[in-house]
Amino acid sequence: MHDAEQFKIPVGPQHPALKEPESFSLALKGEKILGVDIRLGYNHRGIEKACEQRSYIQAMYLVERVCGICSHSHSTCFIQAVEELAGLQVPERALYIRTLIGELERVHSHLLWLGVAGHEIGFDTLLMYTWRDREIVMDILALLTGNRVNYGINTIGGVRRDISAEQKEIILKGVKTLEERTKYYIEVATQETTIIKRLSGVGVLSRETAIRLDTVGPTARASGVDRDVRRDDPYAAYAKMDFKVITDNHNDVYGRTVVRVKELMEAYKIIRQCLRDMPDGPITVRAPRKIPAGEAISRYEAPRGEDVHFVKGNGTEKPERVKIRAPTLANLQAVKEMLKDRYLADMPIVIAAIDPCFSCTDRLVHIAEKKMKKIMSWEALRNYGIAWHKAHGVDFTPLNQLFRKKLERT
Amino acid sequence: MPNEEKIQQELSAKFNFLSGNIQIVRPRRISVSVAEYKNFRPVFEFAAKELNFIHLCMITGLDDGEVLSFIYHLAQDGGALLNIKVSIPKTDPKLNTVIDLFPGAEIYERELVDLLGVNVEGLPSGNRYPLTDDWPKDQFPLRKDWQPPKE
User: Fold this and answer.
1) ipTM
2) Pick the CATH number of B3-92 from 3.30.470.20, 3.40.50.11260, 1.25.40.10, 3.30.460.80
3) For A288-390, where are the E strands, in sequence order?
């Protein structure tokens, strides 16, 4: 396996850093990485083929499950192509709701990433903070759609659930808290010396290489590539939104962090605009079961970058061909470039910095009743946790009191 | 003149054989169909180098019965998308690689090899994608006549 100069070590497919299967074979000389060989496909589920055997509406639910995190991205991207083929005029209100869910999804995805990034560099406090705050947006998504992920809000010709005035208030309240927290994270990311030192100059991808390798999303934008499908090829209600495309010229993991935290602020801006400008009216139009023959291609700016779906119809109720290109596939090529001549210890954060996609469906919220929710409040969940631990012989009460006293003193 | 019409004009002015085969589907969507594979490369290269289509979004492979068709989806920074379609006979499915122009295309071309049984010339040896190493060499799941094996 090795000669005197060079070691080859396999990392994965059961990956110790990322909770998803892919295999990296690293050629090392001492601590330096000479080259990387990537083997993908462990998660290939044949979804494109499966779509050909299902009706359009079934295929929509299937492509929503391409990814656990950007599920809304995939279903929206897919039905946009189908709607173009069918010549459907989707109601304005539905487009606004799609945009709203899309941005909430971006918020949860970026906060998740920030936590993962913190974890990979041994800054687990950041992981705990961001994932706690992420619960705010997860609860909003669960309230609006019934699910934390795989929202099922889309349908061909519109959306399935409307948004009420009370829900708007809850979203605004949540966004206000998140905005405060994000300001703090921007401060942490741009001023905390440990973060700056650990992430600067790591995983370098020059602007030229980023363009040459067709990278997308925050990975490209952190290398100064000014591309964003939301602005360049607007869909849903983005043409009416006022937002900035965040770019950065650091070309490294630090830049990717800055781009993502600043994109959070833009997402809040878009969410507020959606809620403010959302017109009244129907949320869906009737879609035919048989979709006319033709070809359509749709693009969507998912949290990880440009998502592309191609749909070919043949006049029946099943698609002739569905082709999907998820953003991570476009970005993985660049990882080889980023890792070359770098230290082995940088590998986890460099790979994590393109934010490869993994599923996070971890629990359910029941929405069987008309009242639509049976969500455990934060306080109730906390009390439940404390009671559970006490019942199992673990009592933190004295420790908590001690901690509180200490806090009061400082 | 809208950008789409300008692209259409430049393409038809440069390549006579394309006249009638360039279609503006909707704003920012242009479809070009190249009849013969030998003409594909010049059109593709012209779009990439002269018309500023510097981003290859993906390559779609289609089983169209007698032929295999391929659509190369190219994007400009302004948001315009150019879809160049070309077909080759199923009996001799041979493509030339485009990784000299778009190194990122490697993984998309490997997908064509595995799922549609295309022979991509110029593709360096490497791991297959996305099928497993022990997948039979003559089974191409995205071909229309392919059926999953019965248990």
Assistant:
1) 0.94
2) 3.30.460.80
3) 294-302, 305-313, 319-325
